C-alpha cells in the first residue's frame, strides 16, 4: 500500500523537528521536510533518517506550490520573532501574514490534501474588538480569517494553539529569573497579576510532534480550534516549579513574581517589554469578557483527540525544566 505524504514546514526547527521525529517513530508515512538550507548539518541528519528534505521559502509562493505537491497532510508554522529583533513589530507582522497566506494559498491548490494543521494564535484586535493588539498573535490570527474565507481549505484545517514553551526562560532575557541577594529570592517581573494563567506546552521539541501526530491520527472536524497544552499553571506557580525542577531555588518562598505597571515594564524591557505588556493586557480582556467564545471560537483540548498512551508520553513542564542545563545558561 502506498504511504501517505506529510509535509512539515520548518523541519529543522524545534517544533517542526518534533513533528518529524514523531512521524519517524510512528512509521508508515513518507515525510518531506522543508528548509531554507538542505545542506545544513541538521537537514543532512534528517536526510540520513529517510526524510525527503526540500528547499523552500515560505515567503515565496512558487516554491511552496512545488514543495507541497502531492501532500496528504501539511504542518504549517511561522516564526514572528525571526524578524522582530531587526525589523520591528510592524514589519514582522507584515512578513508573517504574507508567509501564512502563502502557505494557505499553496495548500489550497493541492488536490491530494486531506488535513492542514496551522499553528496559530488568536486574532487579538478582532477578538478584543479593538481593545488590544498583540503583534505576535495578530498576523497569525489574520491568516485564520484568510483560511476561513476558503471554505474548501477550512474543511481540511485544524487551527492549533500551542501554549508557552518551558525553554522560553533560556531563550529570552525578559523571562530569565533574577536573583535578589537582599531578599534571598529569585524573581521575575511581569505587567500582570502573579496569579495570571500560564499554560505550558512543556518541551516543545517533543510535545509538538506528539500533539500533531495525535491530531492527524484522530482528525478533528474541519475548522476546529485545538489547544495543545500540557499543564495549566500560573506565573507564580511556574516560577516556583522552575526553582524546584532546576534545583536552583527549591525551598518554599525562594521565588517571587513581581507585578509592575505596563509602563514601567516597557521602560525596563523596551520593544520586547511592549510586546509582552500587550499580550498580558489581551489575556486580561479574554479572562474578563470570554471574548474568544463571544467571537465564535470554541477551543477544544488536544487531549480530547489523543490516546491514553499519547497523553502519557507528553513531557511535563517540570521534566522539561529539569532536563535543561542551567549552568550553560548562566545560572
From TrEMBL:
GO-annotated cellular components: nucleus
Record-linked PANTHER family: NITROGEN METABOLITE REPRESSION PROTEIN NMRA FAMILY MEMBER, NMRA-LIKE DOMAIN-CONTAINING PROTEIN
Organism: Penicillium concentricum
Spans traversing the lipid bilayer: none
Any one Pfam family match given in the protein's UniProt record, by short name: NmrA
UniProt name for this protein: NmrA-like domain-containing protein
All residue ranges annotated as the NmrA-like domain in the record: 3-247
Keyword list, A-Z: NADP
Family under the similarity heading: Belongs to the NmrA-type oxidoreductase family.
InterPro entries, per database record: NAD(P)-bd_dom_sf, NmrA-like, NmrA-like_oxidored
Amino acid at each position: 500500500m502506498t504511504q501517505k505524504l506529510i509535509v512539515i514546514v520548518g523541519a529543522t526547527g524545534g517544533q517542526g523537528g518534533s513533528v518529524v521525529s514523531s512521524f519517524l517513530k510512528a512509521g508508515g508515512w513518507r515525510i518531506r521536510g522543508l528548509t531554507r538550507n538542505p545542506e545544513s548539518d541538521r537537514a543532512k541528519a534528517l536526510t540520513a533518517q529517510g526524510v525527503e528534505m526540500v528547499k523552500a521559502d515560505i515567503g515565496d509562493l512558487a516554491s511552496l506550490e512545488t514543495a507541497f505537491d502531492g501532500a496528504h497532510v501539511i504542518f504549517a508554522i511561522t516564526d514572528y520573532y525571526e524578524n522582530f529583533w531587526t525589523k520591528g513589530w510592524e514589519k514582522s507582522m507584515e512578513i508573517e501574514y504574507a508567509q501564512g497566506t502563502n502557505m494557505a494559498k499553496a495548500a489550497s491548490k493541492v488536490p491530494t490534501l486531506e488535513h492542514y494543521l496551522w499553528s496559530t494564535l488568536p486574532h487579538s484586535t478582532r477578538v478584543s474588538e479593538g481593545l488590544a493588539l498583540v503583534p505576535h498573535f495578530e498576523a497569525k490570527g489574520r491568516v485564520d480569517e484568510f483560511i476561513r474565507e476558503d471554505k474548501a481549505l477550512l474543511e481540511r484545517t485544524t487551527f492549533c494553539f500551542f501554549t508557552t514553551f518551558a525553554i522560553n526562560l533560556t531563550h529570552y532575557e525578559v523571562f530569565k529569573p533574577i536573583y535578589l541577594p537582599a531578599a534571598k529570592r529569585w524573581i521575575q517581573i511581569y505587567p500582570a497579576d502573579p496569579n495570571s494563567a500560564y499554560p505550558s506546552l512543556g518541551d516543545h521539541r517533543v510535545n509538538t510532534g506528539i500533539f500533531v501526530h495525535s491530531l492527524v491520527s484522530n482528525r478533528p472536524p474541519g475548522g476546529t480550534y485545538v489547544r495543545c497544552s500540557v499543564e495549566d499553571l500560573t506565573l507564580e506557580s511556574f516560577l516556583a516549579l522552575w526553582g524546584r525542577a532546576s534545583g536552583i531555588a527549591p525551598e518554599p518562598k525562594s521565588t517571587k513574581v513581581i507585578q509592575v505597571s505596563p509602563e514601567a515594564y516597557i521602560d525596563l524591557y523596551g520593544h520586547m517589554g511592549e510586546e509582552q505588556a500587550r499580550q498580558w493586557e489581551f489575556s486580561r480582556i479574554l479572562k474578563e469578557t470570554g471574548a474568544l467564545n463571544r467571537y465564535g471560537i470554541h477551543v477544544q483540548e488536544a487531549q480530547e483527540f489523543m490516546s491514553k498512551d499519547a497523553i502519557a508520553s507528553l513531557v511535563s513542564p517540570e521534566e522539561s525544566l529539569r532536563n535543561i542545563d542551567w549552568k550553560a545558561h548562566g545560572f
